Each structure stands twice: as C-alpha cells, then as structure tokens.
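Service request form, structural biology core

Requester: graduate student, group of Dr. S.
Request type: structure prediction, single chain
Budget code: on file
Notes: please return the result as structure tokens.

Sequence provided:
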Amino acid sequence: MRLPLAILLCSASIASALEPVTLQLKWLHAFQFAGYYAALEKEYYREAGFEVTIREATPGGDPHKAVIAGEAEFGVSDSGLLLHWHAGEPVVALGVVFQHSAIALVALKEGNSQSVHSLAGKRLMLTPNDVELNAYLRREGLPPGTYQ
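Core staff response, request fulfilled:
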C-alpha cells in the first residue's frame, strides 16, 4: 500500500513543479492554431514542464505588446515582429511555423486584364498588421494614399 502512496506523492510534486505560461494568439480561437491546441491536449507542454494557457486575441490587441507587458510569456505573430525587433523592442522569434505567408489578395474580375495596379483608387479591406501585404503594395507602386 505504500507504493501507490509514494507514486501519488511523486506525481503531485511533478504537477506542482509545472511552470505556468501563457501563449497569446494573434486572432480568435481558430483552426490556424490547431497545433497549439493539439500539443496542449496531448500534454506535450506538460511533459516539457509547462502549464500552458492559450489566450485568444482581443479586438485591437497585439501579441507582441502582451509579451512585452508581461501579460504572456509567448505570442503568435507574423513577419511584422521583425519591424518591432528592428525598432529595438526586446522580442525574439523562437520559430517559424509557415515558410510562406498565407495572406492573399482577392478581387472580383473586371475585364480581361487585371493586375495589382488596377487596385489604385479602389477601396481595400486590410488589417493594421498586414505587414507583408502593405510591403507588397508599396513595392508595386501602391503606397497608402493610392487606395482607400
């Protein structure tokens, strides 16, 4: 009877040794973050010594700001993180999940010939953190102000 008690006490001490950390998402809970949820469900974080809380974004929230403010230990971001690092903010990219950006431009087809330059003067829907898309538009000669 002492052996099960010893095992129970040992597992209780392991559970108390877990380091609590928060992972700040860049968007609402969604399938794009399935890997983080799967790792939580399969207890990979626990095996590594962490008690992880996955927190969805709030409107207007920014994952890198949550990390810098100490509200989260880790955050999911995009290539815009490089701009924050370049500006001297104390951020580090731990890993790259996607090798290519998933951002895409979608538009109704108008006529036989259509290019990114046909967006000049048009109304576009962009989010404030679409760093890659904004860089692409600038490179193509469409800086902010050439579209709504």
